[in-house]
Amino acid sequence: MAGFSDRARAIKPTGIRRMFDLAGDDAIQFGLGEPDFQPPPVAIEAFHRAMLDGRNKYTSTGGLPELRRKIAESWSHLEEGLDESSVCMTMSGTNALLDIFLAIVNPGDEVLIPEPYFPLYPPDVVICGGNAVTYPCRFEKEFVPKIEDLESLVTERTVAVLYNFPSNPTGATVTPSQRDLLVAFAKRHDLWIVTDEVYDKIVYDEPHVSFLGAGYDKVIMLNSFSKTFAMTGWRIGYVLSPNKEAMEQVTKMQYYVTACSNDAMQYAVLEAMERAHWYPDHMRIEFQARRDLITRRLNGMDGVTCHTPKGAFYVFPRFEMPGLNSEQLAFEMLNEGVLCSPGSAFGSAGEGHLRFAYTISESEIDRGMDRVEAVTKRLRGLSQDS
Ligand SMILES: Cc1ncc(COP(=O)(O)O)c(C=O)c1O
After folding, report:
1. Which of 168, 171, 205, 349 is 20 to 30 A from 121 (CA-CA)?
2. What's 261's DSSP letter?
3. Quick one: 25 and 50 in the same domain?
4. CB of 326 shorter than 6 A to ligand 1
């Protein structure tokens, strides 16, 4: 009988998109995680040129060798021995994540996933027949996981642990010593480390701490040009691993998922890496000023506590609003013309929080924060009166 798969029925639509679909055109947009910049002009020109030059065909599954070599080279200060066979181009980080799980997860296998999480992680494990087991990243610990929590969740079915620093939605990063403990945990249990480093170029205060080059070869990284060069709509990313066998399996999966990445676009990304390598830094400087502003505004509100994020472009403040869950609170914000995401869209550990993407101008942030402050005052006034 014609029906739908258990997996399709089990997976729910994301709570981020739901708010987005309900928002009016005049809402102040703290909702979606995409830079409000355009890709570097040299990349747009190179994309155009490549299409005119006939780069409109399938490429090899792994992608353009010059680009893969360039990407391998960009990580070679951390990891020796990387070359073009260490990289597989994909059509986004989203595509890369699925390729990786398809390559390493068997039905019934368990993958340790951080919570709060980027909403794709658990469904992607489920699509591959596995079970997503979440480990807590607590507000009190600045969203860095505790090794005891991870240890308590390992079973004989655990095959991988996913780390995401800088994190969406929390903006957390790790120090080198915290990273070393997380690597040692994976080594102890012979687990794959799947490391999502799509925000590696958007870090403040301290340099990015990667899971590459930490002395473990069962590391598979997914990355993307969505955030690095403000190319969210272009859909281009990659998988990189020092582990040759992993790359063979991942690349094979990529063939069956999309065959290859986009031909002309790979030339555009190569051009961006060669001639606009300053670009992510230019965005980061702007994001840092916004981060400082939004964190200061939120911490100035009664009943709101916000860590200063160390990377990405999200804040994940805690709201003390008795009697209201995060979805109801996000609706209250939406009624006042502020679009943000309820913390529960990132797993139940996100309850009590809202996520604000600071991908709008400082004046818009200020205007939005005035509204957020008015809502919190009204709601706290109400709950104190009742
Ligand atoms: C943590 C994280 N990983 C992966 C992605 C996927 O990025 P894309 O599919 O645009 O490359 C995103 C996008 O928001 C993200 O926040």
Report:
1. 205
2. -
3. no
4. no
Whether residue 86 sits in one domain with residue 51: yes
Indicate the pLDDT class of residue 25, thresholds 50, 70 and 90.
confident
> Does residue 145 have a cis peptide bond before it, meaning omega lies within 30 degrees of 0?
no
CB of 93 shorter than 6 A to ligand 1: yes
Q: Pick from 275, 308, 326: which residue ends a domain? A: 275
Decide if 123 contacts 130 (C-beta within 8 A).
no
Assess whether pLDDT exceeds 70 at residue 227: yes
Nearest ligand 1 atom, CA 33? 14
Residue 246 near residue 103, CB atoms below 8 Å: yes
Amino acid letter for position 205: D
Which residue range forms the structural domain that includes residue 91?
A: 41-275
Task: Tell me the residue length of the chain.
Answer: 386
Q: Whose CA is closest to atom 7 on ligand 1?
A: 93
**Single-letter code of the amino acid located at 146:** K
CATH of the domain at 344: 3.90.1150.10
Query: Domain end: 257, 275, 293, which one?
Result: 275
Centre of ligand 1 to C-alpha 166, Å, is 11
Find the mean pLDDT for residues 336-341. Answer: 96
Question: Could you tell me the two tokens for 95?
Answer: 């595509």
For residues 101 and 157, state if they share a domain.
Answer: yes
Sheet of 354-357: strand order equals 314-315, 354-357, 341-342
pTM of the predicted model, to two decimals?
0.96
